[in-house]
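Lab manual, section 2.4: Encoding a predicted structure.

Procedure: take the sequence of the chain (90 residues), apply the prediction step described in section 2.3, and record the output as structure tokens. A sample record is shown.
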Amino acid sequence: MAVSNDRLCPIAVGLIDGGRAIGIAPETLRAWAKRGKLPSVKLGRRLLFKVTDLEDFLDRHRRGGPEPARCAIVELVAMMREKREVERGG
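Recorded output:
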């Protein structure tokens, strides 16, 4: 498993974190998965997305600029979670 900034990078994220990480609504992410535009994993009632699949999807649709670092999505998700905790006062 990859390590970034002394944190383990999760291998999968759910609809909410996956959508936020790539800047789309969770419903859009669900629709793309249903149409086969983006690979997903169904575990019980949960729909999960491998972080590497999200990164690969973004790489395929990227225009110019430097190559993104691996686990960038995971870092973004972690920052968003920390921001939500601060906003909640926790």
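Check your result against the sample. The two ends are 29 Å apart (CA to CA).
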